[in-house]
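tool=predict chain=A
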Amino acid sequence: MRGGGYPPELKARAVRMYQEIRPDQATDWEAMGRVAELLGVSTAETVRKWVRQGQVDAGTRAGVSSEEVAEIKRLRRENAELRRANAILKAGGCRTNRRRGCAGSEMAGSRIVVCHTTSFAGIAISCC
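tool=predict ok
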């Protein structure tokens, strides 16, 4: 399964089970296979990935933590959104205001008064 098909609780349980049964097994792989079998997870490789990520998150193994991965994804999405907005602005989406007779935006207290809003690719941009 891709895209987080297993619930986080199952992943955490698999990591705990691995830690508990590892001393009784000859190898890491054998312990991971046993956990996969007991929990009905498709492969031991899936459990291995969860165990390794759990070790990274706990700080006992080098790598990028789950929290850092989530932050990187969030920043990449935000960056893409800003690039789209910049592309719209560079394409002249707001230049048409000059023809409409707009003199520009005005500051009214802490609010900006805009002449109109344009939308492109699902992003609304207010401009004047």
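The helical segments are 8-21, 28-39, 44-58, 66-90, 97-100. The chain is about 55% helix and 10% strand.
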